[in-house]
């Protein structure tokens, strides 16, 4: 420390030198010393350094001054609080008095110091900034304008970074600020507005109200245009910064602002329209009732151009000569039109529910204004229309898979379709202007149109071509990229036939772009060229278009870039993709060229940077229906074998996909020697750690087994052990299991003699470690054993008897369970009616072991799949309400229905028996046990899916039953008919789902609970079913969230009383529905009401509190403005959750639950704090 002090003393002495170079070097050395992380200074040295640096701020040399500023910035983080004050307070004094140059320097230093203090210790920072605020507040009212401006800048930074810490000064700041809004200097008024907007981020309600009321009073009483403009700008800034908090004042400001819109002052009009845009963006809910007034004003001023009359000119006459004829530097009306366009854009983006109306009222006017003479305004009009298209895109995504009985000619898509012709006509005129920005906006709009309405431009392509070609001739790279991006989107969203008349025009232009010197244009042009190849000769249809004249030109153009090695990586990859498409589509007409081209792919395959791209392209070529000959195949296969051992996951997956394609299409060109390296890598790829790679590997393995079985010489010792391990994994998924079954089926057919060995391997886990295996493992192994048994005709009948005998002599439950499962799986594939299997299955129904009962139930359902006519009467006979094993037989019926529904023949067979099955199931709907009713409901739902016209009306009629048990079963059955995939039942469901969900009003609590589950299922899987019912269903959902005292009871448990809340489950179901609604129907929710129910939930049961925390976090992510508006409502209950203490005599679980609740509440608070402007609430 002594050495540092001594060194600094020497530097300070040099800083007083008359030589500016000495002062510069000494100050620079001091900065280096201070930047050392562990430097410590004594108090005396600190004071000397500070005094010297402050004096250097007045140095005559600018470079020395700059270094002094940097040193002071570093120093505030190194010295103690009194010394920080010694830096800051003199600077504040210099700000108020002193020379003009010193005030400038002091202002710069203070701004730098404020930024630094905001990143250091809060306690120190808050203490310092309070003294800064105290020192500077009075200077706001200084007579010297230059002082005022600098002080206002500093106060702005202080409030932005330390607003909450300065609350004691807020009243004095606002008192000093308000008179400055009347200042004669516009610069002072602007800075005052900025300070006011930052002040509302952290001020209390009293000061906030005082500011808002002051602005309103002045707007009411002041008629001076300049003053009115200032007050409107301030109100707009306050609204923007304070967020939804401004909502309660919005009505009075809106009416005043609309009043002032009736003026001839262009600057005031601009401010009014900007304010309206901010009001709409910040407080969309409060503005809803007056939105049409704002639309009318915005449309009025969108065409406001008092100094320019063009009554006779046609709309499409937009020549450059006319643009240049008129020029008036004093004309400010363009700012009014610009603000009107911005305001319309804000309306469009916040009022999606009015989108159909927008297409009727806004769209035609926006289209007509594409001819706007001012470039900046024209750009904003284009952006407003693009926003309209984007909102339409959102609407189409919302309605995806919707069963719209929609002859609806009023849908947004229909209305847009009707306006395509005038829209294209207006855009077409702008595509020939000199303005690059306008043309880029045109292409952005057209691109968005293609996304929203694919095929919309099919009849207009010829009209757009002149504009496209005109922009291709432009030297601007950004314009060319925008054109290519649009053309790419145009090709990918329109049918090939639409382009055939213009191929001869398009292709030469695109080929020229491919040869452009700028690599980005080349890459994008190659992308477009690849799509043109698909258009010229589509592989999935016969086009009739003569593609041959273009084949060579496309090939040569692409070959040049494929062969080049000194090009950008992006161009290399695009060239590989494009050439792959060329070969895939034109390969049969390029036989002479392929010997030169294909070796290039081999080179790219060996290159680390292009190998992945090349593998994907070779996969495409190998899958081509043209059957392209691949002389490089042997070398490719040897390279692919090495890639299988790479750790790069995507590379391995792509490699396996290529091998799959080669095996399917070129297996005749392969031999054992080529496949041997690949087969040797397969065992290590079969692993539970990556089931996707495993599944792809098994598919490849099956193909090798089918086409080249001799390549699998060591399958029993290398591959089968890995498969057995995989079958024991709890992570095994059905898709992977199906791949295993496919491989085993092929394996046993080509190696039937190995049956006994494979059987022993598959049974080994059951024999050696049965207690460690889950039920899933038993089922998986049973499926495999059944597959190899049913596929080997030589041993099938014999092995059925063996498995029956094994069950009879089994000494453990595990052996019996496995035998039952194997017989069941065999019974799915083979008729077992002639065997003794049914007897041992039925005997197992009365076993004392529940696991054996369950296995027997599954086995009976499975054998019923193989012979429905034989086993179904037996199952139905026992599906009586008084049956002792009703649940087991219902489960068997469920398994049978599910198995038969997988195939078309099975569905036909099941439908023939469906009425009988349905009748028997109905008798089980009134069972007391919920488990039995749920299984019956699932069976009813699956039958309804088979013949919805027959069974859905019957289900609907059951809603009139007097039994609440039947009603709950029926609603549960409907839940099983709703899937996330399109189904034939959807058209009927959308007509009757309301009646089923109307059971939310049912007097029975269990019926209401299952109705909530059905609502949640529909909302999650197929929201279009309930979209039109939401207004009537939402109040019923909210009703179920209320705690009802009549459902709370006390139960005596020995000497203790235990409180039971029978309404807890239904409330949880209701809040789960609310969580789902956020993702599916956010635009239809009244978020203020939604949050009110969340507030109540935060004081509910532990389970509901935890669920509510998740809802709040999700809502904060997707709609932070609404959460901000209700922040105070949520913070109180959250704080209470943090302060709750568990009773001293509570069990360990209570402590753990409370700890989890605290962590969850802390997470919610952290998310709330991360919302921008959260501090303002």
TrEMBL record:
<dbReference type="InterPro" id="IPR057546">
    <property type="entry name" value="HEAT_GCN1"/>
</dbReference>
<keyword id="KW-0677">Repeat</keyword>
<feature type="domain" description="Stalled ribosome sensor GCN1-like HEAT repeats region">
    <location>
        <begin position="162"/>
        <end position="291"/>
    </location>
</feature>
<protein>
    <submittedName>
        <fullName>Cullin-associated NEDD8-dissociated protein 1-like isoform X2</fullName>
    </submittedName>
</protein>
<dbReference type="Pfam" id="PF23271">
    <property type="entry name" value="HEAT_GCN1"/>
</dbReference>
<dbReference type="GO" id="GO:0010265">
    <property type="term" value="P:SCF complex assembly"/>
</dbReference>
<dbReference type="InterPro" id="IPR013932">
    <property type="entry name" value="TATA-bd_TIP120"/>
</dbReference>
<comment type="similarity">
    <text>Belongs to the CAND family.</text>
</comment>
<dbReference type="Pfam" id="PF08623">
    <property type="entry name" value="TIP120"/>
</dbReference>
<dbReference type="InterPro" id="IPR039852">
    <property type="entry name" value="CAND1/CAND2"/>
</dbReference>
<dbReference type="InterPro" id="IPR011989">
    <property type="entry name" value="ARM-like"/>
</dbReference>
<feature type="region of interest" description="Disordered">
    <location>
        <begin position="312"/>
        <end position="331"/>
    </location>
</feature>
<feature type="domain" description="TATA-binding protein interacting (TIP20)">
    <location>
        <begin position="1025"/>
        <end position="1173"/>
    </location>
</feature>
<keyword id="KW-0833">Ubl conjugation pathway</keyword>
<dbReference type="InterPro" id="IPR016024">
    <property type="entry name" value="ARM-type_fold"/>
</dbReference>
<dbReference type="Pfam" id="PF25782">
    <property type="entry name" value="TPR_CAND1"/>
</dbReference>
């Amino acid at each position: 420390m002594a050495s540092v002090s001594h060194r600094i003393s020497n530097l300070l002495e040099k800083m007083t030198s008359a030589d500016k170079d000495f002062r510069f070097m000494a100050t620079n050395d001091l900065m280096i010393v201070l930047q050392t992380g562990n430097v410590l200074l004594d108090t005396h040295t600190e004071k000397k350094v500070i005094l010297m640096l402050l004096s250097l701020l007045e140095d005559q040399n600018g470079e020395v001054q700059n270094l002094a500023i940097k040193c002071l910035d570093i120093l505030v983080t190194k010295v103690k609080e009194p010394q920080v004050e010694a830096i800051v307070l003199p600077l504040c004094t210099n700000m108020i008095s002193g020379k003009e140059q010193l005030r400038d320097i002091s202002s710069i230093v203070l701004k730098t110091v404020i930024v630094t203090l905001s990143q250091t210790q809060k306690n120190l920072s808050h203490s310092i900034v309070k003294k800064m605020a105290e020192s500077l507040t009075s200077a706001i009212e200084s007579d010297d304008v230059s002082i005022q401006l600098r002080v206002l800048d500093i106060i702005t930074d202080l409030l932005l970074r330390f607003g909450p810490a300065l609350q004691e000064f807020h009243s004095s700041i606002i008192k000093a600020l308000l008179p400055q809004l009347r200042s004669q200097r516009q610069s002072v008024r602007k800075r005052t507005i900025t300070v006011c907007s930052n002040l509302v981020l952290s001020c209390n309600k009293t000061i906030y109200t005082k500011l808002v009321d002051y602005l309103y009073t002045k707007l009411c009483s002041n008629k001076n245009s300049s003053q009115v403009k200032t007050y409107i700008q301030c109100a707009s800034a306050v609204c923007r910064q304070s967020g939804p908090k401004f909502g309660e004042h919005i009505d009075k400001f809106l009416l005043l602002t609309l009043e002032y819109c009736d003026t001839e002052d262009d600057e005031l009009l601009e401010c009014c329209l900007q304010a309206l845009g901010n009001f709409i963006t910040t407080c969309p809910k409060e503005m809803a009732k007056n939105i049409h007034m704002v639309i009318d004003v915005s449309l009025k001023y969108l065409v406001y151009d008092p100094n320019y009359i063009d009554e006779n000119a046609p709309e499409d006459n937009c020549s450059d000569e006319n643009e240049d004829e008129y020029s008036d530097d004093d004309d400010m009306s363009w700012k009014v039109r610009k603000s009107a366009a911005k305001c319309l854009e804000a309306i469009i983006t916040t009022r999606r529910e009015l989108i159909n109306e927008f297409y009727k009222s806004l769209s035609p006017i926006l289209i007509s204004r594409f001819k706007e003479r001012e470039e900046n305004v024209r750009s904003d009009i284009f952006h407003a229309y693009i926003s309209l298209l984007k909102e339409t895109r959102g609407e189409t995504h919302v309605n995806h898979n919707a069963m719209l009985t929609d002859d609806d000619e009023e849908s947004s898509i229909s209305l847009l379709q009707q306006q395509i012709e005038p829209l294209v006509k207006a855009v077409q005129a702008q595509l020939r202007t000199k303005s690059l920005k306008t043309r880029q906006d045109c292409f952005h709009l057209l691109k968005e149109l293609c996304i929203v309405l694919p095929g919309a431009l099919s009849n207009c392509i010829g009209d757009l071509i002149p504009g496209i070609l005109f922009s291709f001739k432009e030297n601007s790279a950004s314009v060319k990229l925008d054109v290519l991006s649009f053309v790419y989107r145009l090709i990918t969203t329109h049918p090939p036939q639409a382009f055939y008349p213009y191929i001869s025009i398009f292709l030469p232009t695109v080929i020229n772009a491919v040869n452009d010197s700028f690599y980005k244009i080349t890459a994008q042009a190659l992308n477009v060229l690849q799509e043109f190849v698909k258009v010229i000769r589509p592989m999935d249809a016969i086009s009739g278009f003569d593609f041959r004249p273009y084949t060579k030109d496309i090939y040569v153009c692409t070959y040049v870039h494929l062969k080049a090695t000194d090009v950008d990586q992006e161009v290399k990859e695009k060239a590989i993709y494009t050439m792959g498409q060329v070969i895939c589509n034109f390969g049969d007409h390029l036989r002479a060229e392929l010997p030169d081209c294909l070796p290039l792919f081999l080179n790219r395959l060996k290159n680390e940077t292009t190998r992945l791209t090349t593998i994907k392209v070779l996969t495409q070529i190998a899958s081509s229906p043209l059957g392209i000959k691949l002389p490089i195949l042997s070398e490719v296969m040897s390279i692919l074998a090495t890639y299988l051992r790479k750790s790069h996951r995507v590379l391995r997956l792509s490699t396996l996909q290529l091998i799959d394609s080669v095996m399917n299409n070129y297996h005749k060109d392969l031999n054992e020697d080529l496949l041997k390296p690949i087969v040797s890598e397969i065992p290590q790829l079969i692993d539970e750690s990556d089931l996707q790679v495993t599944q792809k590997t098994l598919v490849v393995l099956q193909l090798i087994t089918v086409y080249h079985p001799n390549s699998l010489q060591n399958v029993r010792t290398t591959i089968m052990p890995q498969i057995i391990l995989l079958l024991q994994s709890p992570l095994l998924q059905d898709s992977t299991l199906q791949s295993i079954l496919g491989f085993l089926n092929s394996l046993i057919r080509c190696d039937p003699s190995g049956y006994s060995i494979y059987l022993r391997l598959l049974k080994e886990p059951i024999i050696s470690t049965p207690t460690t295996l889950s039920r899933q493992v038993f089922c998986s192994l049973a499926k495999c054993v059944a597959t190899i048994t049913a596929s080997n005709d030589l041993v099938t009948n014999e092995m059925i008897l063996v498995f029956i005998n094994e069950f009879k002599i089994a000494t453990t439950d595990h052996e019996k369970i496995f035998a039952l499962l194997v017989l069941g799986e065999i019974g799915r594939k083979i008729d077992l009616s002639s065997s003794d299997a049914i007897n041992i299955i039925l005997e197992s129904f009365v076993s004392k072991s529940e696991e054996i009962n369950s296995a027997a139930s599954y086995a009976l359902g499975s054998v019923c799949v193989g012979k429905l006519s034989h086993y179904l009467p037996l199952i139905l006979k026992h599906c009586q309400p008084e049956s002792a094993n009703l649940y087991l037989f219902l489960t068997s019926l469920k398994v049978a229905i599910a198995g038969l529904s997988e195939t078309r023949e099975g569905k036909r067979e099941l439908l023939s028996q469906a009425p009988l099955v349905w009748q028997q199931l109905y008798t089980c709907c009134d069972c007391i046990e919920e488990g039995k009713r749920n299984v019956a409901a699932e069976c009813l739902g699956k039958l309804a899916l088979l013949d919805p016209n027959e069974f859905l009306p019957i289900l609907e009629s059951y809603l009139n039953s007097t039994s609440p048990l039947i009603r709950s079963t029926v609603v549960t059955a409907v839940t099983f008919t709703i899937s996330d995939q399109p189904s034939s039942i959807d058209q009927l469901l959308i007509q009757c789902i309301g009646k089923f969900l109307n059971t939310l009003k049912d007097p029975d609590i269990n019926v209401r609970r299952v109705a909530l589950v059905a609502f949640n299922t529909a909302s999650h899987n197929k929201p279009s079913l309930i979209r039109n019912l939401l207004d009537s269903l939402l109040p019923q959902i909210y009703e179920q969230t209320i705690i009802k005292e009549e459902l709370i009871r006390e139960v005596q448990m020995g000497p203790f009383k235990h409180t039971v809340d029978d309404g807890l489950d239904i409330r949880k179901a209701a809040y789960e529905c609310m969580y789902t609604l956020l993702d599916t129907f956010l635009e239809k929710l009244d978020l203020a009401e939604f949050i009110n129910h969340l507030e109540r939930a935060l004081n509910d049961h532990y389970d509901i509190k935890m669920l509510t925390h998740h809802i709040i976090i999700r809502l904060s992510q997707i709609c932070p403005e609404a959460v901000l508006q209700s922040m105070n409502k949520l913070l109180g209950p959250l704080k209470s959750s943090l302060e709750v203490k568990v009773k001293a005599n509570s069990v360990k679980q209570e402590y753990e639950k409370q700890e989890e609740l605290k962590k969850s509440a802390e997470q919610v608070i952290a998310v709330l704090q991360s919302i921008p402007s959260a501090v303002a609430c």
